[in-house]
UniProtKB/TrEMBL annotation:
<dbReference type="InterPro" id="IPR039261">
    <property type="entry name" value="FNR_nucleotide-bd"/>
</dbReference>
<protein>
    <submittedName>
        <fullName>NADPH-dependent ferric siderophore reductase</fullName>
    </submittedName>
</protein>
<dbReference type="InterPro" id="IPR017938">
    <property type="entry name" value="Riboflavin_synthase-like_b-brl"/>
</dbReference>
<comment type="similarity">
    <text>Belongs to the SIP oxidoreductase family.</text>
</comment>
<dbReference type="Pfam" id="PF08021">
    <property type="entry name" value="FAD_binding_9"/>
</dbReference>
<dbReference type="InterPro" id="IPR013113">
    <property type="entry name" value="SIP_FAD-bd"/>
</dbReference>
<dbReference type="GO" id="GO:0016491">
    <property type="term" value="F:oxidoreductase activity"/>
</dbReference>
<dbReference type="InterPro" id="IPR007037">
    <property type="entry name" value="SIP_rossman_dom"/>
</dbReference>
<dbReference type="InterPro" id="IPR039374">
    <property type="entry name" value="SIP_fam"/>
</dbReference>
<dbReference type="Pfam" id="PF04954">
    <property type="entry name" value="SIP"/>
</dbReference>
<feature type="domain" description="FAD-binding FR-type">
    <location>
        <begin position="23"/>
        <end position="127"/>
    </location>
</feature>
<dbReference type="InterPro" id="IPR017927">
    <property type="entry name" value="FAD-bd_FR_type"/>
</dbReference>
Length: 261
């Protein structure tokens, strides 16, 4: 079975264009709170300061500012799940896990509460001769994965491989693209174990001109990227892998590993 075509011409590879934005802090108000799944809380924000907000890339990150576990202010990275400039709303999805200040804030949030956000400071726009997308991640990457899947056109196909605690945590995305979804079930306590994701990948055909995006716990993201490079011989410029968090570290930020050019 042909797993992947190696491209000798680097000019034929995808490009990640970095776009900078003015860093703006905004005070927003909670409009609605929804328990999307047992482990995901969706917060709808609005407010006049949302005017001018921009988020052109599905894996953008903003900073949110919430009280830390000791009461002092702390900040966390979150992906804007959806921005609707016409309705003036911003959706953020929070993984509902114990021990994190952002999740604690989301569980307690009620309409009328305030949340301060900053950014995004920049975006990474992926473009090029991409025929297929392979999006790999865990529950923390679902906002970025969902945005990407929903934004794809009918001329594109996409495969997702996502690890979540159980079937009740799976999500459905509406898209014009052909979408094949693979879900891996494992407890949140084993979120740093990528064995389930790797098992799916080992039986997955990866077409030519597939761009692979990875967002997961840092150890998992590294292991998946290394497998794709070493075992599947996917060129590095066709992979973008990021550690979204580190098990045991409450304040870890998003870290990219060897972006495409």
């Amino acid at each position: 079975m042909k797993l992947f075509q190696s491209f000798s011409n680097r000019d034929d590879a995808p490009e990640i264009r970095r776009e900078r934005h003015d860093l703006v802090r905004r005070r927003l108000e909670v409009r609605a709170v929804e328990r999307l799944t047992p482990h995901m809380i969706r917060i709808t924000l609005d407010g006049p300061e949302l005017v001018g907000f921009t988020s052109p890339s599905p894996d953008d990150h903003i900073k949110i500012f919430v009280p830390g576990l000791d009461g002092s202010p702390t900040r966390r990275d979150y992906t804007p799940r959806r921005y609707d400039p016409q309705n003036g709303t911003l959706l953020l999805d929070f993984v509902n896990h114990h021990g994190g200040p952002a999740a604690a804030w989301a569980r307690a949030a009620r309409p009328g509460d305030r949340l301060e956000i900053g950014g995004p400071r920049g975006s990474q726009i992926i473009s090029g001769p991409i025929d297929h997308w392979l999006l790999i991640g865990d529950e923390t990457a679902l906002p970025a994965i969902g945005r990407r899947v929903e934004a794809l056109s009918v001329r594109t196909s996409v495969t997702t491989v996502v690890a979540v605690p159980g079937a009740e945590d799976e999500q459905v995305f509406t898209t014009a693209a052909h979408h094949a979804a693979h879900w891996v079930h494992r407890p949140m306590e084993r979120a740093d174990d990528g064995a389930g994701i790797l098992a799916v990948l080992k039986n997955l055909k990866i077409p030519d001109r597939t761009f692979v995006w990875v967002g997961a716990e840092t150890h998992v993201a590294k292991a998946v990227r290394q497998y794709l490079l070493d075992e599947r011989r996917i060129p590095a410029q066709w992979i973008k892998a990021s550690g979204y968090w580190v098990k045991g570290q409450a304040d870890a930020s998003v870290k990219d590993f060897g972006d495409a050019r």
